[in-house]
Amino acid sequence: MTRKALSNSFAALSGPGLIRAIGFFRTAFYLPTVTATVAIATIWLWIFNPGSGLANGVLSLFGFAPGGWLSDPNTALPSLMIVGIWQGLGTKMIIYLAALQGVSRDLLEAAGLDGAIFAQNPAEVQWPYLMAGTAPATLPMIVMFVFAQKRFVEGMVNVGLKG
Q1: Which domains, from first to last, does the chain contain?
Q2: Distance CA 16, CA 13 (A)
Q3: Mean pLDDT across the stretch 111-139?
Q4: Which pairs with CB-CB distance under 8 Å and at least 24 residues apart come from 28-32?
Q5: CA distance 49 to 68
Q6: 25, 70, 102, 112: which is deepest, by most CB within 10 A?
Q7: 158 near 123, Cβ under 8 Å?
Q8: Contact 33, 91 (CB under 8 A)
């Protein structure tokens, strides 16, 4: 659910004309999706390294004690959730961006004539329109994620426990 909300938000922000250099931001969010899983695992293993990882380095700047991200049962699952959300965000963002661009201008204009202000458009007009396409696509995405991430998670946890 978190990934869906984040990807929908980023898709709305990366719509045409909202941010300068939009191509850069779309590429930056989609890049983890097309990057090899081994490369992603290597990068995140370095970030979560208990001895010299980036996460512990940043936390030590603020006075926090270093943690064993993947070797500690209390932080292993949240750490893997961060990696999974980060890796899958781009695909969902592209899907939502395409859906948002498919919302009819007539629908938005009709909502404006009915008194909807710009801030109400996403919640009252666009999101219900997106739900028709989102609901059937959610289950296959969940199934694909579970099967695709099984080996990735096992590998990171095994290395984290040894690490």
Answers
A1: 2-162 (1.10.3720.10)
A2: 9
A3: 68
A4: 29/89, 29/90, 29/93, 30/90, 30/91, 30/93, 30/94, 31/90, 32/86, 32/87, 32/89, 32/90
A5: 7
A6: 70
A7: no
A8: yes
**Higher pLDDT pick, 155 / 42:** 42
Tokens of 103: 């919302």
Question: DSSP labels for 71-99?
Answer: TSHHHHHHHHHHHHHHHHHHHHHHHHHHH
Residue 63: left if φ>0, alpha if ψ -120 to 50, beta else—which one? left
15-70: pLDDT as tens digits: 555 556 677 777 777 888 788 778 888 888 899 988 888 998 998 999 888 888 88
pLDDT of 161 > 60? The answer is no
Task: Please state whether the predicted TM-score (pTM) of the whole model is above 0.70.
Answer: no
Token duo for residue 155 = 């590998």
